[in-house]
Each structure stands twice: as C-alpha cells, then as structure tokens.
Amino acid sequence: MGSALRTETPGVSSWETHRVPVVSVLSLKGGVGKTTVTLGLAGAAAAQKLRCVVVDLDPQANATTVLAPDGVQFTANDILTGDRPVAIGDALAVSGWGEPVRVLAGEPALERRNHPPDGHPGRHHVRAALAGLRDADLVLIDCPPSLAELTRNALAASDTALIVTEATAFALAGAQQALDAVDAVRSAHNLRLRPAGIVVNRFRVGAAEHRFRLDELIAAYRDLVIDPVLPERSAVTRAQGAGVPIQRWPSPGAREVSRVFAGYLTLLTTARTGAGPFSKGASR
Ligand SMILES: Nc1ncnc2c1ncn2[C@@H]1O[C@H](COP(=O)(O)OP(=O)(O)O)[C@@H](O)[C@H]1O
Ligand SMILES: [Mg+2]
Questions:
Q1: 281 falls within a domain
Q2: Range of the domain at 49
Q3: Could you report the per-residue pLDDT of 145-170, keeping only the tens digit for each?
Q4: pTM of the prediction?
Q5: pLDDT digits over 216-262, tens only?
Q6: Which of 230, 237, 264 has the most ligand 1 atoms within 8 A of CB, as the residue to mutate?
Q7: Cα 55 to middle of ligand 2, angstroms
Q8: Ligand 1 atom, smallest distance to 240 CA
Q9: Cβ of 233 below 6 Å from ligand 1
Q10: What confidence tens digit (pLDDT) does each residue in 168-219 have?
Q11: Superkingdom, according to UniProt (predicted)?
C-alpha cells in the first residue's frame, strides 16, 4: 500500500524519490483552521486505511491535544535539536484515533525555536528526520500561526504547502505572504516545494462578505483557490472537543465536511509533484 502516493521528481537523488509525501498546512495567523484542516485530512486518510503521520510544529499543540497520542516519549522539539537527534521511528506515538494515525507531538518548548538567536541553523532538521520515515503513506505538518522559523523548517521538509485562510478582509494579503514564504523556502532550500492550493475555511454561503472575499481571492489566485471551500459547521468544533475525527461524528454537517476533506485528500495525493496548482477552479 502507499506506492500510489509516492512522488517522483526529476533531478532528486534516488534515496529521496522514495520519501513519503509531505504536506505543510500553514497560514499567516492563528485561528483560521490549520489544525482543523490537518485533522480533517488525517481523518480522511485513516478512513481510507492510509498510514498518516501528523507532525505538530505548533507550540500550542492543539492537534496533539485532539489526537491524544499514547505514551509520548519525544516531541517535535527533540527532532529540532540538532546535537542529539532522535530517530523518527522512536519519536512517533500512536494517536487515540487508532493505529493508522501517528503523531510527532508538539509542546510549548517549540516556541523558542521559532525565533532562534543565531539565525536558522536548524532549517533542515525536520526534513532530515522525515527522510528516515518509510512506513507511512502521508505526512501532514500542522504549522504554528506565523511564517517564522518553525513554518520555514516545515516548508523545507515538504513537497507541497496547503495555505489556509478565511474569506475576510485580510485574506488576500495573508495568502500572498504565505505564498511568498513558500517561494522563499523553495528557492533557498527546497526546489521540490510547490503550493498545493488555498483552502478557504469557515465559509458561510449566505454571507455577502464571504462571497466578495472569495471572488477577490479567485481573481488573484484563480487556479490556486481550492474548490469547494470548507463550510463553517458546528460539528467541526464538537468533534475536536470530543477528540474524534470529523469522519466519525454523527451529523449531516460532519458528513458534509468529511466529503470536502475526502476531496482535498484526493487532490493532494493525486497532484503530480511539480505540476503546480491542482484546483478545478471553476464552479462554486
Ligand atoms: N469549518 C469550520 N467550522 C466550524 N468551526 C471551525 C471550522 N474551522 C475551524 N473551526 C474552529 O475554529 C477554531 C480555530 O481553528 P483551528 O483549526 O484551531 O485554527 P488554527 O490551527 O489555524 O489556529 C477552532 O475552535 C476550530 O474548531
Ligand atoms: Mg492550530
């Protein structure tokens, strides 16, 4: 299993062609839905019996809290310690969602790694750690709410970057800054990296402002804005509060959101590396 998800990139050395696909989920700020998208994709992967690893690089560790991994011995902070690297296999813990979803836990100590005093000495630590991962089909990195060092470390380790935004006044500027960060890391550290697209989250169909801002995003980034948008549904918060995947939450809203995540997973796992945007982009 899993071979269908392998990425092949011309010009990448052979040991790297068998890497597990890595997706960073990022945004300029907090509260827009990075963790929600990460968890939704992890649940979608598990529902398809794919082996998924969630790397929680957010010092707030919300994904870790919801996934409730069992017997955590090491965290992402240990992976970012260059002098005493921990093997990825030893650092992963099985989540409360079951065997297919494993977690590299986050913890508050990650915060000081976001602004290292001596520049960015460890930008390749996550990449180096994940290069040792074999028994997984997909890695999802939940980034902290900034584009600082931790997010750059995630991007240096990723094949694709999924940008999350809400349809608000600052969406356009925020998406542009996230795309600029992806560009900067690509040219400096990781030529494989591509933007996977922009998820517009917490969308309310009846809200004129949301429609206006979505149209603005489509006008600016047409091919990158992922269709469909992710609707606002109370089931999202409820399932997270209960620590279960949205795919197992029994409500119409949860089923609707789960269908959207299944579509996102398909887009992510079928997009050819290097092919650029994968959005259908047209009707909403
Ligand atoms: N589509 C949605 N519908 C309803 N609530 C949502 C949705 N997306 C996110 N939320 C809620 O908004 C809050 C912030 O989302 P979160 O994913 O934690 O953002 P981030 O990781 O970017 O900080 C959480 O309480 C989450 O449950
Ligand atoms: Mg979060």
A1: no
A2: 12-270
A3: 999 999 999 999 999 999 999 999 99
A4: 0.91
A5: 999 999 989 999 999 999 999 999 999 999 999 999 999 999 999 99
A6: 237
A7: 12
A8: 27
A9: yes
A10: 999 999 999 999 999 999 999 999 999 999 999 999 999 999 999 999 999 9
A11: Bacteria
The long-range contacts involving 220-224, CB below 8 angstroms and separated by at least 24 positions, are 220/172, 220/175, 220/176, 221/175, 221/179, 222/281, 223/276, 223/277, 223/279, 223/281, 224/163, 224/179, 224/195, 224/197, 224/198, 224/277, 224/279
pLDDT of amino acid 124: 87
Q: How far is the CA of 31 from the centre of ligand 1 (A)?
A: 6
In angstroms, what is the span from residue 67 Cα to ligand 2's centroid? 13
The answer to whether residues 185 and 193 touch, using CB atoms and an 8 Å cutoff, is yes
Question: Which residue puts its alpha carbon closest to atom 25 of ligand 1?
Answer: 237
Tally the domains of the chain.
1
Domain containing residue 230: CATH number = 3.40.50.300
Q: Which atom of ligand 1 is nearest to the CA of 230?
A: 1
Is 97 inside any structural domain?
yes
167 in contact with ligand 1, CB cutoff 6 A: no
Any domain includes 122 = yes
- CB of residue 230 inside a 6 A radius of ligand 1: yes
Of 24, 26, 36, the residue with max ligand 1 atoms within 8 A of its CB, to mutate for a pocket test, comes to 36
Residue 7 lies in a domain: no
**Spatial distance between the Cα atoms of 99 and 52, rounded to a whole number of angstroms:** 9
